[in-house]
Amino acid sequence: MSNYKTVFFTLGILQIILGIFMLIPIIVQFFYDDVDSSFFGASIVTIIFGTLFFLSNLDHDKKLSLQQAFLLTALAWLSIAIFGSLPFVFSRIEFSFTNAFFESMSGITTTGSTIISDLENIPKGILLWRALLQWLGGIGIIVMAITLMPIMNVGGMQLFKISNNDSSEKILPKSKEIALRLIYIYSGLTVICAFSYKVLGMSIFDSLTHSMTTIATGGFSNYNQSIAFFDSISIEISAMIFIILGSLPFIAYIKFLNGDRKIFFSDIQIKTFLKIITASVIILSIYLVFSESDQIGFRLIFFNIISILTGTGYVNAQFDNWGSFPIILFLILMLIGGCAGSTTCGIKVFRIQILYLFISNQLRKIIYPKGIFIMKYDQNPVDNKFIASIISFIFMYLVIFFIITALLALSGLDFITSISGAATSISNVGPGLGSIIGPNGNFSSLPDASKWILTMGMILGRLELFAILVLFLPSFWRN
Predict the structure, then answer these.
(1) Could you give the CA distance from residue 111 to residue 400 in angstroms, rounded to a whole number?
(2) Which residues have CB under 8 Å from 19's CB, separation 6+?
(3) At what angle are helices 66-84 and 448-462 packed, to 10 degrees?
(4) Nearest to 348 by CA among 249, 211, 244
(5) If we measure between CA atoms, which residue out of 82, 86, 78, 65 comes closest to residue 5?
(6) Three state DSSP letters for the chain
(7) What is the C-alpha separation between 370 and 63, in angstroms, rounded?
(8) Which pLDDT score, from 0 to 100, does residue 293 have?
(9) pTM of the model
(10) 376-377 and 380-381 as β-strands: parallel, antiparallel, unpaired?
(11) What is the pLDDT of residues 428-464, one digit of tens each?
(12) Confidence (pLDDT) at 236
């Protein structure tokens, strides 16, 4: 295992950081006079394991090969989910390990599905920990998408290389520089979001936790009614603004700070993302008017489309009762997701763009068989290898979506719960559809087998499928 010292050294650092963050809820426990030993015990265990990994691999070579990058990506998210579940296990609420791991994985992957059915009576420390998990997961996926995924050539992410001269050996030093700037931007957006929530009427605690889950597009709330609990148009408008900001490629923020003031208006992915939101709102509004459901206001339509498309999962209405067409539309939006390099999941907007360009190109070749057509994305030529990477990713995404649906059906769930549960897990959305896991439901009543299937879907979707699937190939483990 000497070849993997850098991997375990990095895992040790991540676990130590996670253990330190576990101490934060203790402050809240003191403030609300609700102190127990769950977070302290979980923190000690996590830091001890992290320190052991750290000290036993101090002689690592400070390089990360492509094989090690894949392994680190998978182990990092899995280990954080495992150790992140300890506060739930140790708490007086008596979570089973299945429920604790489900909640932790849902948090760190910014999914937002929950097994807690009575959020209003949950200790503040647990509520804060759920928000912290999503906040850490949000910044984690941004750093990974901008530094590791392009090097790993996962699903077309090589399009977003910072430099064409990037190599796997340069991952660590380059990621340190980029990660620091991303943390500043991410933290700044969180603080501004928290301030806006507080000004608009939330308590300090609610504004803090909801700002973390908003920027992370995670959607964990402190209330069973989600954001609808506040019944405030101004809070919902603020939420939509910061959800969109969290759904934009964070590399655009860096470019903006570097002097490119027009990046948010010129970036092709951002423009298409906003067009999808606009088109979805118009289409759904027209449908609801003609279906005599125009009592459903524009506010509800706009908010829920943004929340579902970005995978945030905040809800302010029972949108699964709007009819058959809205259900199909929301399922499609769940699968699309937001922009690459953001906190969102799903297939991603840029892949939909590439697929559209590919299909258009094929149709033109049929019309003009002797014509020569060069595909370009954002003025850059797109080669066949890149196109194959995109198409194979979308194909595998849909295949795994249907496999998860079938497995959930085999575990005893009905069709709507199965198909929406598969979509919400692999796209890291949060709520599903139907009476059980719908907008105001939760996942507590599902069989344990279903929860493990959904957990598997969460990590597969969060890590762009291939970062996990490649680990099961025998050739991956050969030197």
Answers:
(1) 17
(2) 42, 43, 44, 45, 46, 47, 50, 83
(3) 140
(4) 249
(5) 65
(6) CHHHHHHHHHHHHHHHHHHHHCCHHHHHHHHCCCCCCHHHHHHHHHHHHHHHHHHHCCCCCCCCCHHHHHHHHHHHHHHHHHHHCHHHHHCCCCCCHHHHHHHHHHHHCCCCCCCCCCHHHCCHHHHHHHHHHHHHHHHHHHHHHHHHHHHHCCCCHHHHCCCCCCCHHHHHHHHHHHHHHHHHHHHHHHHHHHHHHHHCCCCHHHHHHHHHHHHCCCCCCCCCCHHHHHCCHHHHHHHHHHHHHHHCCHHHHHHHHCCCCCHHHHCHHHHHHHHHHHHHHHHHHHHHHHCCCCCCCHHHHHHHHHHHHCCCCCCCCCHHHCCHHHHHHHHHHHHHCCCCCCCCCCCCHHHHHHHHHHHHHHHHHHHCCCCCCCCEECCEECCHHHHHHHHHHHHHHHHHHHHHHHHHHHCCCCHHHHHHHHHHHHCCCCCCCHHHHCCCCCCCCCCHHHHHHHHHHHHHHHCCCHHHHHHHCHHHHCC
(7) 48
(8) 65
(9) 0.91
(10) antiparallel
(11) 998 888 889 988 789 999 999 999 999 999 999 999 8
(12) 95
Q: With beta carbons less than 8 A apart as the criterion, state whether 293 and 322 touch.
A: yes
Q: Is residue 456 a contact partner of residue 405, using CB atoms and an 8 Å limit? A: no
Tokens of 52: 């052991």
Are 360 and 351 contacting, i.e. CB atoms less than 8 angstroms apart?
no
Can you read off the two tokens belonging to residue 429? 């959305």
pLDDT digits 0-9 by tens, 389-412: 889 999 999 999 999 999 999 999
